Structures are given as structure tokens and as C-alpha cells.
């Protein structure tokens, strides 16, 4: 069994204990990305912390669809920039004296801290509850069954977040919270017509890879969340950084390459943990 934890321990299994330095990255470190990181301030990252990290909260519950949150998680965690904010293009940039950093910090949020069983039987231990979750800049909502407490938290937190994004049928969660009223939205193609009937105030667009409506964005099903996450990276840090992330991931999809959208605001000040 693999237990995934997005905070201090990304993957826990029978592997050697690897403790990466905050100031020095090596090729061996990238080859061991699934090794656990134990320092309290590492939070899954493998480079120097951004001075003003962009906080990304992933909402989860039992039965959540794995790729809906794991796909965007991989995108945000793989964003690497140098001291000038340019994308990292070569492993040689990770040597001694490297200025490479990860500008996003990620965490999971659920109603309780009890282990969750998501699709395929994977067990995930949430990092935070709605009571103690740090205020997010980005909220990721995949397919899952929300509680009333979650809908309250989502509505409140989305009011101050830079962007709230849904993946697949996560659009129904946003619709239930009233975040899509009067907006166009995307969802899995199986549900476009049904959701249009259930939420007549929302215009669900068939065939759209993703739809952006102000500070809310919705994607089509499953793998489309990767494209929307890359789009969010682009809106924060520019197309070159998003392309560098896709290249590092060896992701060949082009669905995220839409006409430039409005940039998202960076955090105004360093965020407290």
C-alpha cells in the first residue's frame, strides 16, 4: 500500500530515507523525487522555497477521482524557475549555487484528517481541515462528493483566492456552491446535458477543453485538468514557464495553449505558513 501525503511526506513506502538540502539540488535528487521529504518547511518541494509562494489547495473526500487532483498536483509541483523567474531547462542548473525554486506550495484539504480512500483504492491523508487550512491562492476541485461544510468553505475561500478551478465533474461542486451562476463552464462530456438541466443558470459548453470565467475556470474530464493547471501556471508566471513545465513533464498535449488570458495576481506579501 502506498500512502500519499502532500505536506511533509509525499510518498511513504519501502525506500531509502532521502533528506534533500534546501540549498543544493543534485541530479540524484531529481532521480529520487518520490523519496520522502521530512523537514517541516519542505512541504514536498525539492528546491529553495519561493519568497512569496503561491498556495494551492486541493479539496478531497472519499471517492475522489485520482487524476483530477494528481494531474494538476504534478503540474504545480513541477514548476521550476531560476532567480530571474525564467524556466529551468537543464539539469545542470540544479548544481551548487543554484537559484532554482518552486513558486507553488501545495496542500490537501478535507473535512477531517482521517485517511481517505480515493479512486482505485489509494489512501490519502489530508494535510488540513476546513478549520485550519491556510488561505489559498488557487483552489483545485476535482470529482468528489462534497459535504455542506466543504461548500461553505469553498464559497468563502474562493472569494479571496486568485482562481478556483474544477476538473471533470468537479464543476458540479462549483455549481452547488453557486460559483458558476451566470457563467459558462466545462465538464466531462457525459454530463454536459444533464448538468445543464440541473443548473439552468450555468451554460455548460460541450467540447470545450476548459472554460475561463473571471476568477473561476472549469475543465473537461480527467486529463483536461493537466491542461487547465498549465494554463493557470501560464497566467501566473508566463507561457515560457508553463512550456518549461510541460517539457519537464514530457507532456505533449497542446490543449492548454489558448490565446493569452489575463494574468493572475501574485501574493502581495510573503505568506505565513
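Sequence proposed for the structure above (273 residues):
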Amino acid at each position: 500500500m502506498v500512502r500519499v501525503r502532500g505536506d511533509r511526506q509525499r510518498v511513504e513506502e519501502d525506500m531509502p530515507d532521502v533528506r534533500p538540502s534546501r540549498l543544493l539540488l543534485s541530479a540524484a535528487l531529481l532521480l529520487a523525487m518520490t523519496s520522502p521529504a521530512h523537514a517541516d518547511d519542505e512541504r514536498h518541494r525539492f528546491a529553495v522555497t519561493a519568497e512569496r509562494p503561491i498556495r494551492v489547495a486541493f479539496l478531497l473526500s472519499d471517492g475522489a477521482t485520482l487524476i483530477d487532483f494528481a494531474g494538476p498536483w504534478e503540474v504545480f509541483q513541477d514548476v521550476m524557475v531560476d532567480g530571474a523567474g525564467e524556466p529551468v531547462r537543464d539539469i545542470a542548473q540544479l548544481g551548487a549555487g543554484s537559484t532554482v525554486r518552486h513558486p507553488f506550495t501545495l496542500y490537501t484539504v478535507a473535512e477531517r484528517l482521517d485517511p481517505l480512500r480515493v479512486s482505485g483504492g489509494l489512501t490519502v491523508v489530508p494535510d488540513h481541515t476546513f478549520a485550519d487550512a491556510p488561505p489559498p491562492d488557487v483552489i483545485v476541485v476535482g470529482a468528489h462528493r462534497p459535504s455542506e461544510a466543504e461548500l461553505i468553505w469553498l464559497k468563502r475561500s474562493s472569494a479571496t483566492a486568485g482562481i478556483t478551478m474544477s476538473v471533470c465533474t468537479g464543476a458540479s461542486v462549483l455549481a452547488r456552491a453557486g460559483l458558476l451562476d451566470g457563467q459558462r463552464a466545462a465538464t466531462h462530456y457525459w454530463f454536459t446535458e444533464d448538468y445543464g438541466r440541473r443548473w439552468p443558470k450555468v451554460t455548460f459548453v460541450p467540447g470545450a477543453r476548459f472554460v475561463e470565467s473571471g476568477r473561476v475556470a472549469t475543465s473537461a474530464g480527467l486529463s483536461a485538468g493537466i491542461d487547465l493547471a498549465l494554463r493557470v501556471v501560464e497566467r501566473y508566471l508566463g507561457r515560457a514557464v508553463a512550456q518549461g513545465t510541460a517539457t519537464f513533464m514530457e507532456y505533449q498535449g497542446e490543449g492548454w495553449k489558448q490565446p493569452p488570458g489575463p494574468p493572475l495576481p501574485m501574493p502581495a506579501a510573503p505568506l505565513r505558513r
